[in-house]
């Protein structure tokens, strides 16, 4: 039975009127989160809340559409799909592995990281970019994981990060335009179903990066500056950091791949891997000026904000940094500790930054934190500073395993420079004097928040879906929580007065967009369920639903579906 927890004093809240304005329909979704602010809230109308994905022949992967409802088309992917779909230039681009066997020169039993391109009109396969596995094996390029990043598309150009630790620029047309647009494509591989590569930047070779298991970053850009998290991390021992001096955050010229600036702030304190993606937004400062910021989640559990232009000398220009872990939290191998890194992507909404902490999903469930941060500060804006009794007036440097160790004379004090607006970890929402370990707790999360009408949604890895007041101050305000009883890897979609979220069981739950749990959900035989139900996609949904031109795109492990309400 699904569980939910309302906040009783908020039951009088009304549903949000989705028709209070009429912005333009979102025609494309050209990067993870739609734009640099990363908030998954496109504009659409008539978005389906009922569909059936049909049946599949699991031996061949062929789709049987005879029982499908409201499915425009389905495209075969690989056997494991973690990359999020983007829609631009009349095409759908998505990362997966090679189990689909689209190219003759790479049969399905050849393990690759693949970026696939389909025509959004009918789901026709157009081309594939193929990343052969690194010879170093799973320490750098985990088997069968494919491409886990989402692409950035502008015009006829596409940028993405391969599983091999490369940033690549492609022509969105592939070779369907009859042209080889870049010198990086082998002339023997210029068939119409091959990718047209314009430039390649190898972060392992050029910067000494050593990614852990997988290089995965969904890049973004401001002007001609491409912003990338390198995924620098530990080796197979999960203790040693092979490349402590390699950068974690970089900026490239998106036209040439030239390095503009680099930063290695997490340094020796990287906990595991670094798989977060950067966010870029214009922030209004207290003096009324505007400051462009690129915000990165670090593998040390800190959030870092930089000037996208760097310092002008090849280095980064740090604006502020924020420790997203309590100072006494502890990192323990295998996820048994309380200290986390950041996998989710920060989101900027109404001059606030939002980010949750988490760990590799293989580490299981654990305590988490969701932060709302004022991005107008400078320097260390963490909630606390760490000191040692030997010199209680001078902050001590960050430590990897535990920032404050009381047995060694360490102590934490409130930071007078803190820019925390609110922090959500545990909250006695129903006022019974006890904390429900599931419904009143924020757990580790891979997910990114989505916010509309000041209402924030986020799913955690314990399968709890949280609805909060995004514009609260001082302390969090939780409107309601709901137990999906399955881990959520992806992030919510808010569109057309509805909220969509997928889970590991393959269910997509659909709620009314509302602060009132009795509007967001409905009672069915004594059980509270999403107001618009749950629809199973046939197998696990690790991705995030998106919308473009009133079509809903959802990928499960093996297929990408274009879902559209039929007349």
UniProtKB/TrEMBL annotation:
Record keyword tRNA-binding present:
no
Signal peptide coordinates: 1-18
What InterPro entries does the entry give? PQQ_rpt_dom, Quinoprotein_ADH-like_sf, WD40/YVTN_repeat-like_dom_sf
Keywords from the UniProt entry: Signal
Question: Which segments constitute the Pyrrolo-quinoline quinone repeat domain?
Answer: 445-513
- What is this protein's record name? Outer membrane protein assembly factor BamB
Output the lineage of the source organism.
Bacteria, Pseudomonadati, Planctomycetota, Planctomycetia, Pirellulales
The primary gene name is bamB_2
């Amino acid at each position: 039975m699904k569980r939910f927890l309302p906040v009783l004093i908020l039951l009088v809240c009304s549903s949000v009127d989705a028709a209070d304005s009429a912005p333009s329909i979102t025609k494309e979704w050209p990067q993870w989160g739609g734009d640099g602010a990363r908030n998954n809230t496109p504009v659409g109308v008539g978005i389906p809340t009922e569909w059936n994905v049909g049946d599949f022949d699991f031996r061949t992967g062929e789709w049987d559409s005879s029982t499908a409802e409201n499915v425009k088309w389905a495209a075969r992917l690989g056997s494991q799909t973690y990359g999020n779909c983007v829609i631009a230039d009349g095409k759908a681009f998505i990362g997966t592995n090679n189990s689909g066997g689209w190219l003759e020169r790479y049969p399905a039993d050849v393990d690759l990281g693949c970026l696939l391109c389909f025509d959004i009109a009918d789901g026709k396969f157009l081309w594939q970019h193929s990343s052969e596995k690194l010879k170093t094996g799973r320490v750098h390029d985990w088997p069968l994981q494919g491409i886990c990043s989402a692409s950035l598309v502008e015009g006829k150009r596409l940028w993405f990060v391969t599983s091999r630790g490369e940033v690549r620029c492609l022509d969105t047309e592939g070779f369907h335009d009859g042209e080889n647009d870049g010198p990086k494509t082998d002339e023997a591989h210029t068939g119409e179903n091959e990718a047209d590569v314009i430039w390649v930047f190898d972060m392992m070779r050029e910067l000494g990066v050593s990614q852990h298991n997988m290089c995965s970053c969904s890049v973004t850009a401001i002007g001609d500056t491409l912003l990338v998290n390198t995924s620098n991390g530990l080796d197979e021992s999960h203790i040693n950091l092979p490349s402590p001096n390699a950068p974690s955050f970089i900026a490239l010229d998106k036209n040439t791949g030239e390095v503009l600036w680099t930063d290695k702030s997490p340094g020796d304190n990287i906990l595991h891997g670094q798989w977060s993606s950067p966010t870029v937004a214009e922030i209004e400062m207290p003096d009324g000026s505007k400051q462009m910021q690129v915000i990165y989640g670090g593998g040390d559990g800190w959030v870092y904000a930089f000037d996208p232009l760097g310092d002008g000398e090849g280095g980064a220009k740090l604006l502020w940094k924020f420790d997203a872990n309590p100072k006494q939290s502890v990192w323990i191998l295998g996820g048994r500790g309380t200290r986390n890194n950041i996998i989710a992507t920060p989101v900027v909404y109404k001059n606030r930054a939002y980010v949750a902490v988490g760990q590799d999903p293989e580490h299981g469930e654990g305590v988490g934190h969701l932060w709302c941060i004022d991005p107008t500060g400078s320097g260390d804006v963490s909630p606390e500073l760490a000191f040692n009794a030997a010199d209680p007036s001078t902050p001590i440097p960050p430590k990897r395993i535990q920032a404050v160790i009381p047995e060694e004379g360490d102590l934490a004090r409130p930071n007078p420079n803190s820019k925390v607006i609110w922090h959500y970890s545990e909250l006695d929402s129903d006022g019974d004097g006890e904390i429900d370990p599931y419904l009143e707790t924020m757990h580790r999360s891979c997910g990114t928040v989505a916010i509309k009408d000041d209402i924030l949604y986020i799913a955690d890895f314990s399968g709890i879906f949280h609805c909060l007041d995004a514009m609260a101050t001082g302390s969090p305000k939780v409107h309601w929580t709901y137990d999906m009883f399955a881990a959520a890897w992806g992030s919510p979609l808010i569109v057309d007065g509805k909220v969509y979220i997928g889970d590991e069981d393959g269910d997509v739950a659909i709620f009314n967009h509302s602060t009132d749990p009795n509007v967001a959900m409905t009672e069915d035989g004594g059980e509270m369920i999403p107001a618009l139900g749950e629809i199973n996609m046939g197998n696990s949904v690790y991705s995030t639903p998106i919308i473009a031109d009133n079509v809903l795109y959802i990928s499960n492990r093996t297929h990408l579906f274009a879902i559209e309400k039929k007349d």
